[in-house]
Design a protein that fits this description.
It is built from nine helices and 26 strands. The strands form three sheets. Strands 2, 11, 12, 13, 14, 15, 16, 23, 24, 25 and 26 form an eleven-stranded mixed β-sheet that branches. It is α+β, with helices and mostly antiparallel strands. A hairpin with a 4-residue loop joins strand 11 and strand 12 (227-238). It has helices spanning 2-20, 56-66, 176-201, 205-215, 297-307, 372-381, 383-386, 388-397, 403-415; strands spanning 24-27, 46-55, 70-74, 82-88, 93-97, 100-119, 122-145, 148-160, 165-168, 171-174, 219-222, 227-238, 242-244, 247-262, 277-279, 287-296, 312-315, 318-330, 333-342, 344-357, 362-370, 399-400, 420-423, 426-432, 436-442, 446-461. It is 25% helix and 49% strand. The radius of gyration is 38 Å and the shape is rod-shaped.
Length: 465
């Protein structure tokens, strides 16, 4: 009898403890996510105008670096009866003259000209040697070819500092009356040399690609949201280069994809080897940036978990707190899994359709409700939690802000448009208009928001290296 009483006492104690327990366990069925197919989404390319200006002074400086001292030497007289050496005597001057490059080159030249023939194996030649010292003025038409500014240079004048002389018996004898025909002997040499120097000094491909690589490196827009902007070039366009005042103007444009990624810094997708310069007649003068904001469900879950921090849902003694949030997609709906502690322990599953609130600039979940099995279990065990008032309060925290962090990103981007110098001698300036939300697309791995931004960008090269 005593043993039976003890068993009954223990049984009653268990009933009392169970009835006094403050928590119930809910084990609702998990709405399984759709299969994890690759992240694929529609992306509208953006077009960024990149008008580039290069000062003639920079071309002048670089040309002077390339042409110094002895700038041309031909010691083989047998091929064309000419042997020639040309020295630069003073810095070259390069200016704009009626839309053409005007080059002034102070020089001296030693020209040997062979006259005669070879008969029966006997050389019957005489060599005339001319000393020239003067200033050569040349003009050049410029065209853009394969990233390089090519010029077609023509010698316009030759002004003598000293009377041209010819060496006769070891003495310099003035021969001004003979020199005009001799000028033709080295005219083409000077023109070719100037063309080669300007073309080499104006191979701006390394500068442009280096600047683009810097611009296309993903950069942090918002530290709190860990959002990164990256630009992925598709094609580069360019119009014909033009001289204006003291600069070369080159209208360039870049067709690209623009993405914002949430999470760790993405790997740059810039590949200089794949970029081709395509000639076009005109280029728009405004940015039309279609930005793809990619928020993986994992990162979105972390941010939404922060939204619930320190909050309790319920009333009186019946309350829960959300410990963790996980979200995923199923059948074009978002599933929001809430791990809760309190009067109810377990995981609550909600579903809803992502929408955008233009006033608050937030993504929220419309028509949110508990998943069918979750709702059924709550109706039996925690009807208070299934009521609309509690659900609406929970829904208020089920928001995921993408556009505000893009606004912060816009502020960050503006810093890159205020005399930003990605490398020495390259400066970026511009402006951006307001962000315009376009639409949202769900994939099996992420929420994709499409944003449009208009503005302008200008790139100047000042101090070409």
């Amino acid at each position: 009898m005593t043993k039976l009483f003890s068993v009954l006492a223990i049984f009653l104690l268990l009933i009392i403890v169970s009835s006094c327990a403050t928590s119930n366990k809910i084990a609702a069925l998990k709405p399984e996510p759709d299969d994890a197919s690759p992240l694929v989404y529609e992306n509208t390319p953006s077009f960024i105008n990149l008008p580039i200006s290069i000062k003639l002074k920079d071309i002048e400086n670089k040309t002077n670096m390339l042409l110094n001292g002895l700038i041309y030497e031909d010691n083989k007289i047998e091929d064309d009866n000419i042997e020639m050496k040309i020295w630069k005597l003073a810095p070259i001057s390069i200016t704009n003259e009626n839309g053409k490059i005007k080059t002034v080159l102070p020089l001296k030249a030693l020209v040997k000209y062979r006259i005669g023939t070879k008969t029966l194996g006997i050389d019957l030649y005489s060599i005339k040697e001319f000393n020239l010292n003067g200033v050569v003025t040349l003009t050049s038409d410029a065209t853009l070819t394969n990233w390089k500014l090519s010029t077609k240079t023509e010698l316009k004048s030759l002004d003598w500092n000293e009377s041209p002389t010819m060496v006769v018996f070891g003495k310099n004898i003035p021969v001004t009356y003979l020199i005009d025909p001799a000028v033709k002997l080295f005219k083409s040499k000077i023109e070719t040399k100037i063309d080669a120097a300007i073309e080499k000094s104006m191979d701006f491909k390394p500068n442009v690609l280096a600047a683009l690589e810097k611009i296309c490196t993903p950069f942090l827009m918002n530290e709190a949201y860990q959002s990164w902007l990256q630009i992925i070039p598709i094609e580069i366009y360019s119009t014909t280069a033009k001289l204006k005042n003291d600069s070369f103007l080159l209208e360039m444009g870049m067709k690209c994809n623009m993405e914002t990624m949430i999470g760790n810094q993405p790997v740059s997708k810039f590949d200089a080897a794949k970029i081709i310069l395509k000639p076009v007649a005109t280029i728009p003068n405004q940015i039309s940036a279609n930005i793809t904001a990619v928020s993986t469900y994992d990162e979105a879950s972390k941010i939404m978990t922060k939204n619930f921090a320190g909050q309790e849902f319920g009333s009186g003694s019946k309350k829960i707190t959300v410990q963790k949030v996980n979200i995923w997609q199923k059948d074009n709906k978002m599933v929001i899994a809430l791990d809760v502690l309190g009067t109810i322990n377990g995981t609550l599953y909600l579903t809803g359709f992502p929408q955008y609130n233009d006033q608050t600039k937030e993504l929220f979940f419309d028509k949110m409700d508990y998943a069918l099995d979750t709702k059924s279990k709550l109706m039996r065990t925690a009807n208070w939690l299934a009521q609309g008032l509690v659900l609406r309060k929970i829904q208020e925290s089920c928001k995921y802000s993408i556009t505000p962090n893009l606004e912060e990103g816009k502020k960050s981007m503006i810093t890159y448009l205020k005399n930003y110098s990605p490398m020495p001698g390259v400066f970026v300036n511009g402006k951006m208009d307001d962000i315009q939300y376009q639409r949202t697309q769900l994939t099996n791995k992420a929420i994709i928001a499409f944003i449009k931004v208009n503005g302008t960008v200008n790139v100047s090269i000042d101090g070409l290296k």
